[in-house]
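Deviations from the work plan: none for this task. Representative record:
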Amino acid sequence: MKTKFEADFVATLNYILHETSDEELIRMIEEAEGGVYQYATESVIQKGINAMMFSMSFMIPGTVFPIFPQGTFFVKWDTRVANYEDLALAA
Amino acid sequence: MSAAPEEEKFPEIAEYDEIISAYHGTDARCATLIVSSRFTIGHKSTLYLGDGVYFYQGCRDWALDWARTHDKIPPVVIRSIVSMGKCLDFTNKFYSAHFLEFCTKLRTRLASKERTRSLLNKMTDATVINMIANKTPVDTVRAEYHLDRRAFEASKIRLDSRLVVCVRNLDKIRESEIDTNSRPSP
């Protein structure tokens, strides 16, 4: 190894490959995949409201919408505001 | 993932922090908001290098091109000073070689079972980088991006090569300003 970060990097790759259960691996990939709707509830009503909030987020960058108790979604929502306006490169 | 024997003779060296000039394309309204507050991290599985704020290293014109081709009106470039910190650097063979080996083994593992096979379709560069970075802190990710345009057939120079830097840790963006050279003429 050359640096601590390089050592940590390799240790992480080994951990993911060899020390995770299938369930943990599935969860890790789904979390890493991102996507606005994966954390939302399946309620049709909430999906509609989520879409409205998503549109509003373009107008009010940085706004937090703590309306529902599913805090994870809305915290992440706040960090996604600039997705389509500010990214310098989308593959 | 074992280290090469010659590397193990030198178990640790001091980490250094590379400082770069980086350029981000956007529109005038967003540029003003960003400079007056801060960048916001983007999340999307189709992003090139995973979650983060994207820059072109050392070249304003690539950022301006990006803003123009993505209908940013008026197109504006922000120049930032970025400290690379813990950088997952795909221009460094150490990381690209381990990444290749990791992805190959991960795909083999996912394909080996019925319940995980469907996840193969979810594997993108961004997903894998996010998965790694969720387990070990990564401040920045850097990779080359290029198209195949050349000056002539035998040329080995890729004319569209550019270095893309994805900043995951916003504290690594030391300062930002609107690049006045990128402002459109009145």
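The two ends of chain A are 32 Å apart (CA to CA).
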